Amino acid sequence: MTTAETPFDFYSVSYLTRIGNQSAGTVGELLQGLEQCSDASIFHHTFQTLGAHHFLTENFSNDFAQWAMADANRNDLGEQLASLDVRDYLSIAALREDLCRMVGEFCTASPEFANQAALERFYFCEGVEVTVPLGIQARTLEEFREGIGRLSHAGFYFHFISSRLRLQLQTNDFSHWLADGLGLATLAKRINQIDIYTNTLEGTREKMLRLIDRERRKI
Amino acid sequence: MIDTGISSRIPLEEYARILGEGEIEELRALAKPLRGRSIEMINSTAVGGGVAEILTRLLPLAEQFGLNIRWDVLTGGDDFFEVTKAFHNALHGAPYHATARDFEIFKAYNERNQSRLPLDAEFMVIHDPQPAALIEARKKNGNHWVWRCHIDLSHPNQAVWDFLEPYVARHDASMFSSPAFARKLPIPQYLFYPAIDPLSEKNCDLEPEFIAGVLARYGIDPQRPILTQISRFDRLKDPVGVVRAYRIVKRYFDCQLVLAGGGAPDDPEGSVVLKEVLREAENDPDIKVLDLPASAPLEVNALQRASTIVIQKSLREGFGLTVSEALWKKKPVVASAVGGIPTQVIHKQTGLLAHSVEGTAYQIRFLLSHPEIAAKLGESGHQHVKENFLITQKLKRYLTLFLALSGCK
User: Fold this and answer.
1) DSSP class of residue A118?
2) How many pairs of residues across A and B have Cβ atoms under 8 Å apart?
């Protein structure tokens, strides 16, 4: 059995949601907010919300899209915003740019809707992150599988979703270690391909465990 | 100090059974650096009200993770509580002319409590406006003080808020139940949701026989759709509007309506509203208006579990934890988009929101016509509560806050 030189350390994460001073009552104001809000706010309403609402697998992608559909009553804009996949982004700046572009194009194309009052305001918030080591380490695929099984949803989210920004790579902590630490590049790639928008975190974990089990049978 | 008692301590294994061992391990990891460190919660009542209910459940849970946590209650005379009740209503936007004497009474009782209470824990959590002036006792370079506001401050009486704000601003952080309830403050403001305990009598699993017994006692037919609103008989909960929505639905579905709740004993308006509701019901045998005592959690639980759809048609709302209670029981919810309700009911994801009697009726009709969608909303709602509005999540937020205040990132 292959043993990695550098172990995989399992962590978990917990967020406090800090209420910002900005809010938007129209799509036009949402655009202003998107341009001015902190990076932590963009992260909170996209990456973090995906973790907090992972059990919603139909038409739920990020807070901006949900607000556009449910409160601003703009399904067209909502659908566009919902199509964003956070895994495509290695920086918040790039994600912000695309959000602003989509909302900006909507405001230009439909100025009559840009200033229409929404049912509820959108409040810009940001996450304050606290990470904690769980005291679980893995050096082999066996130990890694066991660690995955013990993770909380937040821990799984931390390693599988929010890790992309930390790594600045289009991958996640699990795949990164499997490829680099254990040399299992194919398994790493398959795990990275699991669709987090159409699977819950629990469903994603189950798929991942099945892929690991298949790999273990080969060894 | 309030003794929450060993009897209210539910073993962690019970929570692990519901949430999974991973979630409990995560709480252990978060609590580890805080083990043995002191926390003092202060509010103004030991019984009654949502804050006391939450603290009763939270403390025994926190102790099991090794936290040195205590709960103290502010003492005061009738004059103090009359003033703070008036402040409470004024902060919610009710008209009120505050006098200099009111402010003096407020300050005097806070000063008396400063010498009575220890106020020396590393983390001091002050609940609501009543004990806000205890911050005067804070020592320089001492402990961390945070202010947890459970009320809606979006449209406060300016004179009362101007008086309180300097006290609030001296804390290290403040916490609100919704971004819409917050004020612009010079200190960080965090989102802290109220929570339900899945193992309390109001939310625990019940035997089908017990539920059937409750329905039989009140003459409710389990074979026909049951629409339920659980809330005090208060105009802000719009029970009359619920009856009107039911009448529209009744044209299409042979359903029943259950309006269950009780008036608070100190609320003279409750009995007036109850009469209004009975008048609106016009002796319709399919409308059950149940004036339940406050201490009937198992009956409330049974009624929620027996419901086809749960309604919360409030005109104004704080957070509206009855919504979380219903969602936890996997019930489809139709509710007004007010206060903290949209946080719990994500429209078309974890329930349906409405803005009028007609809208409420339409959403109910839609769900009665599409039981498969109703079931899906109920399932997602249950998950939403599990992730965000359970007492374990509340403890997690506190642990995270204390770690953040201690500089752990």
Assistant:
1) P
2) 103
Cβ contact A78:A68 at 8 Å: yes
Chain A residues near residue B30 by CB distance under 8 angstroms: 12, 14, 130, 132
The complex's ipTM?
0.89
Contacts of B20 in chain A (CB under 8 A): 152
* In chain B, domain spans: 6-195+390-405, 208-388
Of B342, B388, B404, the CB nearest to A52: B388
B68 torsion bin: left (phi>0), alpha (psi -120 to 50), beta (else): beta
Which CATH number applies to B6-195+390-405?
3.40.50.2000
For residue range B198-248, list pLDDT tens digits in order. 999 999 999 999 999 999 999 999 999 999 999 988 888 999 999 999 999
Q: Which of B400, B401, B402, B406 to mutate to test the interface with A (most CBs of A within 10 A)?
A: B400
Over residues B325-339, the pLDDT tens digits come to: 999 999 999 999 988
Q: Is B135 left (phi over 0), alpha (psi -120 to 50) or beta?
A: alpha
Place of tokens 């609320």: B267
User: What is the reported pLDDT for A193?
Assistant: 93
CATH of domain B208-388: 3.40.50.2000
Report the pLDDT averaged over residues A34-52.
Answer: 90
